[in-house]
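## retry 2 of 3
previous attempt timed out at serialization; input unchanged, resubmitting
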Amino acid sequence: MQIFVYNPNSSAPMTDLIARSARAAAGGNATIMAGGAFAPVPPSIEGHHDAAMAIPAMLDALRRAEAAGAQAHVIACFDDPGLAAAREVVAGPVIGIAQAAMQVATMLASRFSIVTTLPRSVPIIEDLALHYGMSHALQNVRAVDLPVLALDADPDHAHALLRREILAARNQDAAEAVILGCAGMSDMCKTLSAETGIAVIDGVHAGVRLAVALAGGGYQTAKTGAYGWPRDKSQDQHSASPLREVAQ
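## retry succeeded, writing output
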């Protein structure tokens, strides 16, 4: 079984981190095909404009991954950029890590909070929770006020800020689980859960495990309605945008 895990931004260190986290999540149950974008795609996705800039390259990468044998796909950005469009252009299941993490959280706890990077991400995540029908369980979206790329630049500082907000979510929000609201936080998940005594959920891990389950069950995206393709795909002309592939 092959699962394609795609980092929509052009940060090579983050693509490498996501690939490591995805392979750890898959264990021996699937082969992870990991990739990420190149410039001019932004090096981080921190708002609607960045997400829009990243989507065309992402759709092209998913098409090519499926042609190479990928049976399911994970979009490793917590904004879930272009998720509906991605489900249109490939047959296999496409998992957004925000949706995956929220669904896992509601199966483990009755209420959860999310800790993300910048304050500007808060309303975007709140809108996603509303769209996914999760607002009833979402207690709070907390921001550590760090840019995405600062997670890699100063991981110790980022870890300390995340730990503080996770404890606040537990003690002030009455959250029973906390979701890490950025793929760049995935390598801190286990340590933060052990340090805070609360279930901490990483969307990359959740997304990969759900992708493995869906692909293993032989499920594919429905093409008779919203995710159907209204014309012959061969008529579309797509630029072959470069893909940063991460070695096995």
